[in-house]
Amino acid sequence: MSREKRVVVTGGAGFIGTHTTVELVNAGYDVIIADNLSNSDISGVEGVEKILGRKMTFINVDCCDKDAMRRELFDKYEFNSLIHFAAFKAVGESVVEPLMYYQNNLGSLVTVLELMKEYNVENIVFSSSATVYGQPDELPATEATPRQRANSPYGYTKQVSEDIIEDCTKAYSFLNAIALRYFNPIGAHPSALIGELPKGVPNNLVPFVTQTAAGVRECLSVFGDDYDTPDGSALRDYIDVVDLARAHVAAVRRLVEKKNKEQYEIFNVGTGNGVSVLELIREFEKVNNLKLNYKIVARRAGDVEKIWASTDLANTELGWKAERELSDTLASAWAWEKQVRGL
Ligand code: WQD
C-alpha cells in the first residue's frame, strides 16, 4: 500500500486509538499502531485484530524515545500521516504529578514532530480536548471560543500542545495539522471486543457507572446537584467513541487529499447536545433495564458547570456528524463492561 494510505497511530492500543484504528482500516487505510502500553493493554490490539479479522502491525515503543522511534518506526515504514493519541489523560493525577504530564505529553509530541520534520511526514492529527475551553462564557463552545488557562496540568498540556503544533505549521511549510477537540468520549465498539479499560479507580463518569452496575464499585457519587442546570447536575457533551473515531478518519482524509484550507485547523468533536449527569444515569438505567446505586455528594473541585459543542465546522468542513444515539452508546458501554467482567 502506498505511503499516502499508511497512517501511524501513536497511543493506538488505547481507548480512542483502538476504535480509530478500526475505522481507518475500514476506510481503506493501512495502520501501524505505536504504543508503549504504559496506560493501555495489548488486549486492545488483539480486540482490533478480532474485529478486523487480520493481524495488525504493532510497535511497542515510547514516543519520548527518539532513537527507538527512529529505529523501530520512521526507519522501517513509509508513511505520510500520523495521529497522535499517546499521552497521559487523568486530570486528578496530573495535579499530583505535573512533571510526569509535562514530560510525557509535551515530550512525546515534540519528539514526534522532530521526527516528522526529519522524515518529511507531512500530516498530523492531534488528540486535543474541550478542556481547553474551561467554562465558556457563551455556549455552545465554538472553535473561536477563547481558551481559558486550564486548571489542571493535563488540560494545560493540551493547550500547550496545540500552540506547539501551530508554531510548527507557521515555521515549517511541509507540515499540515488538524487538532480535534474531543468533548466527552464514551461507549464502546458494538462488537464489545474493544472499549475503555481504565486502570484503577475510574476518573470518568461512564466507566464508573458501568463498574457500579457490574458490582465492581459499591456506589456512584454524583458530584453536585446544585449547579445552575435543569436538574442541578453538571452538563456535558457525551460523544460516542465510534463517532469520534470516524471524525479522525475524516480529518486524515482531509489532509491526505489536501483539502485543508490552512496548514493548521481545529475542529470540535461532539454531538452539540448538553446532557446532565442525572439524565445520563436515567438513560443508562432505562436502556439496560437496571437500577444504579448512586448518591449525590459535593461538587468535584475543578469541574466546569456546563459545556457542549458547536459542531458546525466539523459538519461542513469535515463532512462529519455524530450519528449514534446516547441510548445505543450507553448500551454498548454496558455490553463492554459485561464482556470484561465475564458477566
Ligand atoms: C463528567 C461529569 C463530573 C465521575 C475530563 C477531561 C476531558 C476528558 C474527559 C480525558 C462531570 C461527573 C464524574 C463520577 C460524577 N479527558 N462525574 N461522578 O471532567 O467532563 O472531562 O475527562 O479522558 O479532557 O477534562 O469528564 O467523565 O470526569 O466527568 O458525577 O464518579 O460527570 O462531575 O460533571 P470531564 P468526567
From TrEMBL:
Stated family: Belongs to the NAD(P)-dependent epimerase/dehydratase family.
Single annotated GO MF: UDP-glucose 4-epimerase activity
UniProt cross-references to PANTHER family, sorted A to Z: UDP-GLUCOSE 4-EPIMERASE (PTHR43725:SF47)
EC nos: 5.1.3.2
Pfam families: GDP_Man_Dehyd
Source taxon at top rank: Bacteria
Keyword NAD: yes
Organismal lineage: Bacteria, Pseudomonadati, Bacteroidota, Bacteroidia, Bacteroidales
Keywords: Carbohydrate metabolism, Isomerase, NAD
Naturally occurring in which organism (per UniProt): Mucinivorans hirudinis
UniProt-listed GO biological process terms: galactose metabolic process
Protein's UniProt keywords contain Lipid biosynthesis: no
Reaction catalysis annotation: UDP-alpha-D-glucose = UDP-alpha-D-galactose
Gene3D superfamilies: NAD(P)-binding Rossmann-like Domain, UDP-galactose 4-epimerase, domain 1
Limits of the NAD(P)-binding domain: 9-330
Protein name listed in UniProt: UDP-glucose 4-epimerase
Named cofactor requirement(s): NAD(+)
Record-level GO cellular component terms: cytosol
NCBIfam families, alphabetized: galE
Signal peptide extent: none
Complex formation: Homodimer.
CDD domains: UDP_G4E_1_SDR_e
InterPro entries: NAD(P)-bd_dom (IPR016040), NAD(P)-bd_dom_sf (IPR036291), UDP_G4E (IPR005886)
Pathway: Carbohydrate metabolism; galactose metabolism
